[in-house]
C-alpha cells in the first residue's frame, strides 16, 4: 500500500461524487424511465417521443425487417411490445432474459394485442443473457422445476405479481393497524422457550469457527447462558408489550422444525399476530380479525396487482387456481357478518352428516381436515370465512382462558378461542382470550406439567414456582394484567389463498422446509 | 370425557358467541374507552360525563377525602389525573401497577399540572398489583437495572414512547417506499451462506429432543442437507428479487454472533435494506437514503410521540440525551443537501488535523471512530449527516463495484460505496453499487479466495467454478443483470439516534447480545 499523497481536499459538495462517474454513464438520468405498467395505461392521442423504459426481454419474434420484443419489468403481468429494426447495431443483444434500456416513440399499435407499442430508436443492453442456457422459459414450466432455482424463479411474470401482492398487503395492513392506533412491534426471534419441548423448534448456536477459537485452541464460553431457540410464535412477548402500550401487532418471521412435507407448512414463515388489551371477551378479537381481512380485501381488490390475478388469461403458464375461484375468495373476505359457530354446535352439525366423513366427529377431539372443509364450505356458503369458537380445553394451549360460566349442554370444559376457516384452505387464523389471572394460569401450567423443569432457574422460591423458562410470562400476571386476547394469522398462507397459489412453497421466494433450503 | 350429547345446532349467527359471555362482562362495550392521549387533548367547555378510560396506575397520592391517581396507558408520556373518593369501595385496589378501568366526569382542573382531570364515579380493578413487590418504580431506576427485566421494562413511560416511535417510523417508511413503487419483500432468515467463514454467524439446527428420535433411538437425517445459518444481511437475496420487480426493500431481522460488549451492537437487530435496479451510479442510491431519512423526519417531527421526546421534562427519570440535542438530530435529517465527500478527500482532511487523533489517518485503512466522529461533527456542521464515499477496494466487501475510471490523485483502487455518518453515533447506513458483471465478480471472488471451497457443490463444472455456496449469487450475473446498488441501515441504531437513547440495548424491547438473552 502506497503512503497517502498530499491531497488537497476539494470543497465538500455534491460535485465530488460526480468526479468518479464515467461520462458514458451520465446520459442516464437525462430522461426518467417509465415502468411497463405505467406505459400500458398511457394512450396518448399522438405519438410520444423520447420514451425510456427498462426491463427484461421475455421473448423475441424475428420478422424480415423488425424484431418484436416482449419486455417485462415486474410491474405488470402483461408485457410491453417493442419494435426494433433488425439491422439495428444492438439488435443481436436482445436475447431472452437480457436486461435492456430502450428509448423510442410510444405510438398506437396496428396489432390486436395492445393499444400502443414502442418504436425503438436506441437499444442499450445493460445485462446480457445467453438465451440458450437461461433456465426460465416462456413455455410452461412445472412449479417443482421452478422451485429448484428460487433465485431465478421471481423473474417469471406470475411470480412478480406474487411479490407485488405481498408488498401491497403489508402496506395495507400497516395502514389498517395505524388507523386503529395499534402499535407495530418487533418481538424477539431468538427466545428462551422451547415451546414445551415439543421438539419442533430450531436451536441457535454461534458457529464455532471463529478465528479466536482456532488461534487459542480453547473451547469458548457458551454465547448465551442457556439453550436458545428460534421463536415459534411471538404471542407471549406481544402480551408483555400489550401491557405497556395497549393494542399491539407484528408481522414477524417464525420457525417450525416440522419434519413434514405438505403444501401448507414451511419451516420459516411470516406470522401476523395482534394482541388487544383491556378486552373482556372474544367478540372484539374476532371483530378485529374480520375487520382486518375485510379492509385488506376492499383496499386491494381494485389494485393493478389484484386485477392481474383476476383477469389473467387461463394460459398464462401458471398453476394458479382458476380466476373465478380467486375472485370468489376476494369477494368472500369483503362480505359483512361472517358466521360464528361454537365447536360444540359444529360437532353436533357434523354428527348429523356423519356418513359423509371418514372420521366420525367426536366432541373432545380436534376437527379433522374433512370436518373443517365441510364447515368452511357449508356454513359460510362457500364464500364467507367461518369462525369456530370455544374448543375443548384439553386440546388447546395452556394460556387460553377457560370459558366461564361453562355453556349449558356442553360435555366438558371449553376455552375462549377461535379458529378462522376459509373454503378450500381451512384454517388461516386462530386466536383466544389469554388467561390473565395468576392463580388460574399457574393451575393450568401445573395440570399440564409445565412447571418444575429441573433446568429452570428460580425454583427455590416457593412463591415463584419454576415454570420451564416461562417465569417472566407468569410474572406478567403478578402486576396489573388486564383481560386480553389476540390472534395469529399465517401471512404466507393468507397470500396463497388470495393469489390462488396451491402451495405455500410457491408463495415464498426462498422457501425452507424439511430437506430444502436453497440459496 | 363424556360422549357427545345429541345437541341441536342453534342457528348459525353472531348471537352464538354471546351465549358464553357472562352477563357481568357485557357492560363493557356500552361506552367505548378513550386513550389517555386523547383525553389530555380534550378540553370541553363543560364537564363531560360517562367518560371511560383504562390504563395502569403510575402513582397514588392519598389525601384526606380523595386519592389522586396518575394513570398511564402508553399513549402519552404525561399521565392523566384521576380523583377517587377515599371512601370508594374499590379505592384500595388502586395500587401502583394495577390495571384499571375508570368511569367518571372529565372536568376542568383547579390544579396547575393539568387542564382537566377525571372525577371518578366507578372503579374497576381488572388486574390487581401488589405495589410492594412491583419492580417498576416511579423514582429513577438505572438502565442496567431495568434491563434485567425486559418483560416489565416497557411499562415505564419513556419505554412506551420508544415503542410508539418504532411503530410510527415503520408506518412512515412503509408509506415512503410504497409512494416510490418499491416492492416490500421478505427475504429468508435461514440461509446457506456463512458469510465467508467470518465466524460471526449463528448456526440453526433442529432441537434433537423430538419424540421420534427418542422412540427410535435412531439418529435422524439432517433437517436441511447442509449447514444453515441465520442471515447477517438480506442484500444478496434482495439483489435476486430486484432482478424480478425492480426496486425493492425490506425491514428484516438480521443476526451477528459478535462476542463484543458495546453500546452499538446486538446479536439480533432489524436492518432496513433497499436495492435499486437499473441505476448506473451511486448518486441515486445516496439520494434514496437521504430522501428516505428526510421523509421520516419531516413526517414524524410533529407527531405526539416525537413531541413527547422533545418536550419531556428533564427529570422524566430517563437516560435520554438532552432534548435540545435530540431536537437537533431531527432537524439535521430534515435539512436539504447532505455533504458528500470521498474517502480520499476525507483522509487528506484528517491528515491536516493529524495532531488531534490518537491514530494517524492512513489511506488504505479503515477510518477509526475518532476520525468518523471528526468528519460527522465538522463536515456536516454538527447537524447534517455526511456521506463518505469511495473507500479503498481492499478493505471492502467482494460484491462492491470497483470505481472506473479510477479517480486521479488516488493512491489505489476504490469501490463505489458510501458510509453515512451522523454526529455522535457515526455510521448509521452503508451502501454501494454491486458488481453486476459476471467476469468482474468472479475475478474479485478469486482474488479474495471465495472460490474453491471443498465443501461447496458444483465444483466439477469448469464454467461454474465453486464459490462457497454463492453459486446462485454468481448465477444472477449470467442472465440479464443490470447495474444496481443499494444500502443497509441499522434500524434500531437509527431509532436510538432519533430518540436520544444512549445504547441500542435500551431501544430494543428484548435485546440479545453476548451472554444475554432474557425471556
From TrEMBL, chains A, B:
The keyword Ion transport does not apply. GO terms for biological process: asparaginyl-tRNA aminoacylation. The keyword Coiled coil does not apply. InterPro entries: Aa-tRNA-synt_II, aa-tRNA-synth_II, aa-tRNA-synth_II/BPL/LPL, Asn-tRNA-ligase, Asp/Asn-tRNA-synth_IIb, NA-bd_OB-fold, NA-bd_OB_tRNA. Transmembrane segments: none annotated. Residues 163-511 form the Aminoacyl-transfer RNA synthetases class-II family profile domain. GO terms for molecular function: asparagine-tRNA ligase activity; ATP binding; nucleic acid binding. Its EC number is 6.1.1.22. Keywords: Aminoacyl-tRNA synthetase, ATP-binding, Ligase, Nucleotide-binding, Protein biosynthesis. Pfam families: tRNA-synt_2 (PF00152), tRNA_anti-codon (PF01336). One of its GO terms (cellular component) is mitochondrion. PANTHER family: ASPARAGINE--TRNA LIGASE, MITOCHONDRIAL-RELATED, ASPARTYL/LYSYL-TRNA SYNTHETASE. Belongs to the class-II aminoacyl-tRNA synthetase family. NCBIfam families: asnS (TIGR00457), PRK03932.1 (NF003037). This is asparagine--tRNA ligase. It comes from Parathielavia appendiculata.
Amino acid at each position: 500500500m502506497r503512503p497517502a499523497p498530499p491531497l488537497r481536499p476539494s470543497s465538500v459538495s455534491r460535485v465530488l461524487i460526480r468526479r468518479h462517474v464515467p461520462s458514458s454513464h451520465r446520459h442516464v438520468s437525462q430522461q426518467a424511465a417509465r415502468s411497463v405498467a405505467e406505459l400500458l395505461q398511457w394512450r396518448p392521442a399522438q405519438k410520444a417521443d423520447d420514451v425510456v423504459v427498462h426491463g427484461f426481454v421475455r421473448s423475441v419474434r424475428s420478422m424480415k425487417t423488425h424484431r418484436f420484443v416482449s419486455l417485462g419489468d415486474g410491474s405488470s403481468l402483461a408485457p410491453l411490445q417493442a419494435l426494433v429494426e433488425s439491422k439495428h447495431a444492438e439488435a443481436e443483444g436482445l436475447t431472452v432474459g437480457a436486461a435492456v434500456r430502450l428509448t423510442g416513440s410510444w405510438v398506437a399499435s396496428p396489432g390486436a394485442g395492445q393499444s400502443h407499442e414502442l418504436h425503438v430508436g436506441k437499444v442499450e443492453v445493460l445485462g446480457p443473457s445467453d438465451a440458450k442456457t437461461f433456465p426460465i422459459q416462456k413455455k410452461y414450466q412445472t412449479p417443482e422445476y421452478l422451485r429448484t432455482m428460487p433465485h431465478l424463479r421471481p423473474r417469471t411474470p406470475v411470480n412478480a405479481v406474487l411479490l407485488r401482492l405481498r408488498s401491497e398487503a403489508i402496506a395495507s395492513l400497516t395502514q389498517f393497524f395505524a388507523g386503529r392506533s395499534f402499535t407495530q412491534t418487533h418481538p424477539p426471534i431468538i427466545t428462551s422457550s422451547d415451546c414445551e419441548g415439543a421438539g419442533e423448534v430450531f436451536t441457535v448456536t454461534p458457529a464455532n469457527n471463529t478465528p479466536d477459537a482456532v488461534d487459542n485452541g480453547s473451547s469458548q464460553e457458551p454465547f448465551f447462558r442457556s439453550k436458545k431457540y428460534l421463536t415459534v410464535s411471538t404471542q407471549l412477548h406481544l402480551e408483555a408489550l400489550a401491557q405497556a402500550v395497549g393494542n399491539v401487532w407484528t408481522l414477524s418471521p417464525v420457525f417450525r422444525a416440522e419434519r413434514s412435507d405438505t403444501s401448507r407448512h414451511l419451516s420459516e414463515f411470516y406470522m401476523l399476530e395482534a394482541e388487544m388489551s383491556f378486552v373482556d371477551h372474544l367478540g372484539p378479537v374476532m371483530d378485529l380479525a374480520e375487520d382486518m381481512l375485510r379492509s385488506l380485501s376492499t383496499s386491494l381488490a381494485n389494485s393493478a396487482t389484484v386485477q392481474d390475478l383476476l383477469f389473467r388469461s387461463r394460459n398464462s403458464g401458471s398453476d394458479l387456481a382458476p380466476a373465478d375461484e380467486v375472485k370468489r375468495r376476494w369477494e368472500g373476505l369483503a362480505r359483512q357478518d361472517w358466521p360464528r359457530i361454537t365447536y360444540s354446535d359444529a360437532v353436533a352439525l357434523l354428527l348429523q352428516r356423519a356418513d359423509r366423513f371418514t372420521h366420525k366427529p367426536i366432541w373432545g377431539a380436534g376437527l379433522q381436515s374433512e370436518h373443517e372443509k365441510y364447515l368452511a364450505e357449508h356454513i359460510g356458503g362457500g364464500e364467507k370465512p367461518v369462525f369456530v369458537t370455544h374448543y375443548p380445553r384439553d386440546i388447546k394451549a395452556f394460556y387460553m382462558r377457560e370459558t366461564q360460566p361453562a355453556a349449558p349442554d356442553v360435555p366438558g370444559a371449553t376455552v375462549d378461542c377461535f379458529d378462522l376457516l376459509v373454503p378450500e384452505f381451512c384454517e388461516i387464523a386462530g386466536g383466544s382470550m389469554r388467561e390473565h389471572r395468576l392463580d388460574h394460569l399457574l393451575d393450568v401450567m401445573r395440570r399440564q406439567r409445565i412447571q418444575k423443569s429441573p433446568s429452570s432457574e428460580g425454583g427455590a422460591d416457593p412463591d415463584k414456582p419454576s415454570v420451564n423458562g416461562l417465569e417472566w410470562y407468569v410474572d406478567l400476571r403478578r402486576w396489573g394484567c388486564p383481560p386480553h386476547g389476540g390472534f395469529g394469522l399465517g401471512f404466507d398462507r393468507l397470500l396463497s389463498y388470495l393469489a390462488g397459489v396451491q402451495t405455500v412453497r410457491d408463495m415464498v421466494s426462498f422457501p425452507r422446509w424439511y430437506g430444502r433450503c436453497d440459496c
